[in-house]
Amino acid sequence: MFFRTVATSAAILVALALTGAVAGPDWEPEPVIDHLEPATVSTAIGGASAADGEPGDYEVRESAVTIPLADGLEVGGLLREPVDGDGPGSDGPDSTPAAGRAGIVFVHGAGTGKAADAFTLAATALASAGITTLVPDKRLDNYSTRHRDYEAMALDYAYSVGYLRGIPGVDPDAVGLYAESEGAWVSPVMMVADPRLAFQILVSAPVVPPRQQAAYAVDNYLRNTDVPAGVFRAIPRAVGMSLPGGGFEYADFDVRPWLKEQTAPILAVYGTNDASMPLEQGTRELLASADDVTVRFYDRANHGINVETPDGLLLHPDFAADVAGWVLGLPTTASAPPQVAGAQPEQLYRASPVPQPQWFGDGDWLVGVVVTAGGLLVVGPLLVGGAVLRGRLARRRSGRPGVRLAPGLRAPLAGLGVGATATTVALVAYLAVVARLALDYEKDAVVVQGGWIGVRLLGIVAVVAAALLLNRVRDLRGRVAHTPGTDAGGRAAAVVTTGFWLTVLGATALLVTLAYWGAYQLGI
């Protein structure tokens, strides 16, 4: 009995491992071998002059504004203007800024994007250098996790550009864009639609399509968290599928055609501690797609070009001065050397097209399988239990034995159903905890390594229960309903048999799903 159980369990484990291997794509990202080499560690902008203005040269006047959009809609915003007349290029003490100031419209990254909460340090610092800045609220009525239209967003931000051009003291032909993260998929569209825009500042720009960037970020975060190798199989299967409920069409948006078509100079900046962006690959794509590209890498800076200080997260000390110097020094700074400078970036793997899942490529199908399996694991035991209960009540009335599961089936059937369910819940909980650790840049070997072992051990318990059940059913020649002393036939027996096989089917569907997500990998 023992050896037969071990052999059957091993056969089921191998079958599940093979199923998981052939059911969808593996994850084999291409390593980056040829790394970028910045010309110098200094991020100073070639051709920039302190005489043009530096952060701190001006007092900043901040005003809440309302920006009209199409169809009678409007968004709020914060306008920051340099007003100290003693700065470079001013008309004299206590005057308002001289005409011809450069202006910057800020384009938000992912999220809600309220002007009061976004770009506060950067917009204020640049205004204090003599640049008028406008941070609009992001329009949210047509923006959600599921639905985003970057071309439509570009049209909305264009109204902020027009608003800033109308501010006294701003040179309409010296207005440009500052786009961060997701905003870097929006701003190139704006540049093509409005060739009058003078420049583009890309902060932590993905450049590659969102789906590729998401897979890259997940891979990087998981590596930083030291997850077991088996967890990586989930990346293409989660990121590559069409997500449940539809939407997410923007996942494959490719901004590179717009980058190739726009002609204004670009300043691209990255923080070397940003694990979410393909720093080197993004730089190479920009250099290949556009002319007059200047790139800077900031040591220890994160996604927002902030660094840890005793006072908390603050902008990298060189960042605002470099950006201001580049903007105020145009057109000289557009092509001034060095083109690529700063700290050495370290991108381990390329962001590449994500393989498409084979079995669960449709997220609705995946959800349907899991929900159906859960329903079967509820309905099946209810049918069995109800038939057995009715049989007991009938026995009390008539004295005749009622229908029940055949001997030796109840415990392994319960073990299979509970084991498959518990393993599924444990896997979901494990991935959720790992995701939180990864996003917080934390490591916890007990949770990350021990949790994965725990999930797989639960899975093995379910497989052993399946092996015991399979062997017992074979011994019974498939007759799973039993009435002591009588023939196991009739309507009650059919109900018990149906409930039994529904429970087995539901548990099997969960085991196959668990195999798909990597819970039963055996190095296959």
Automatic annotation (TrEMBL):
Family annotation (PANTHER family): ESTERASE ESTD
SUPFAM superfamilies: alpha/beta-Hydrolases
Stretches the record annotates as Disordered: 78-98
Source organism of this protein record: Promicromonospora vindobonensis
Lineage of source species: Bacteria, Bacillati, Actinomycetota, Actinomycetes, Micrococcales
InterPro entries documented for this protein: AB_hydrolase_Est10 (IPR053145), AB_hydrolase_fold (IPR029058)
Protein name according to UniProt: Alpha/beta hydrolase family protein
Gene3D superfamilies: alpha/beta hydrolase (3.40.50.1820)
The protein's Enzyme Commission number: 3.4.-.-
